[in-house]
Amino acid sequence: MGKLVILDPGNEGAATPFLRGILTRSLRNSGIDFEAAYALASKIKEALEDQESLTTTELRTAVIEQLAAASFSSEIIEQYSDPSPIRGTIMVSDKKRDTITPFSLHQHTRCMHASGLSSRSATLITTELFQQLHSQNITEIDSNALGRLTCTILRTNVGEQAVHRYLTWTHFSHSGKPIHILIGGATGSGKSTIATEIAHRFGIVRTQSTDMLREVMRVMIPEALLPTLHTSSFNAWQVQPRARDLVGTAPTSDEIISGYLIQAKEVSVSSNAIIQRASRENVSLVLEGIHNHPARMREVTQYSDGLVVPLMLAIIKRNDLRKRLTGRGADAQNRGAKRYLKNFDTLWKLQNFLLDEADQQNIPIIHNGRQEETIKQVMLAINDALTPKFSITEETLFPA
User: Fold this and answer.
1) Which stretches of 70-118 are DSSP H helices?
2) Residue of 53, 193, 182, 202 whose CA lies nearest to 122
3) pLDDT, tens digit, for every residue of 95-107?
4) CB 215, CB 376: distance < 8 Å
5) How far, CA to CA in Å, does 386 sit from each of 159, 164, 173, 181, 201?
6) Is the pTM of this model over 0.85?
7) Domains and CATH numbers, the chain
8) At a CB cut-off of 8 Å and minimum separation 6, what does 217 contact?
9) How far is CA 242 from CA 245, 246, 257, 379, in A?
């Protein structure tokens, strides 16, 4: 069976493949958050998989039926039904920058995410703002007026704290400075998953894993020269000279920590270079990995021109961490759950060390339980880090 193609009468009847990503973007432009849009696009793709071709009109009708079945608001259905640029475009003028740009639902929702709102709340605030503008037949609005209206809607629906966070984030955004988010945590704490989500919600395109940096270094540096680099962080103690006398015995916490610190220092050569380059190029970055040792994350602030936000993820309960490691192996067999579980006590001791170090460095420790709640707590921690330098009043940031 061939892939479903879409026939576009407005383009000489040309056939193009059905692309879930394109449909997701159209749904996002109608005011639906990314997760819901992607899920709906996937459901529609599955429902239409037995058909060979559809016209653009037939596809739009199928999508509208799914929107109605999923109980989306009439405003969202109307916006999807009639995406005319003339009807949907609201221009935002910025006198300071001497620019006029279209209002973006996606960018405004992202700003709400960065202000510490959940995905659902962010979408609701942006949707209400968009609806208010359309109900008043506004086709052009000053950026300051848009900011004040956003504050009003936030204040009414969420509260004054949300307004403060929005003002802080917007003030930082106007500064033009990059943000460098460093996420540490032991094996199994969910660093890569959370880092990917945070990068998406902030619109950060440059992300890096210290594990990948270590892999590159392994190719370039022979094992005989740096044996610590060629083992896992929780087993780095085994290649230390004294380890030969420990065969068959469990390592002490000091031995585990010593091996880890040596490897973290070796990998820091690459991670520091990544951060320094991002700083020179004035671009934001998310760097995650177990090698983000708390003391070294604090040192980064000494040479970075951007705002550096160190964070530490944790799984506080032993049984929860064990379950995550078991699931990790099931999701990706090459990651070896058996190996992690065999070294579980070592992993637990290493996490305790990292959390204690983070606590001493006053680095926020975030328990990674439910993903959406974890992301929200990370967003709030980042906003808290911005507050000392970028806290500002509504009247100052958005003068009438």
Assistant:
1) 74-81, 85-88, 105-114
2) 202
3) 777 888 889 888 8
4) no
5) 19, 11, 11, 12, 17
6) no
7) 5-83 (1.10.40), 88-175 (no CATH), 179-369 (3.40.50.300)
8) 226, 229, 266, 267, 269, 270
9) 6, 7, 14, 43
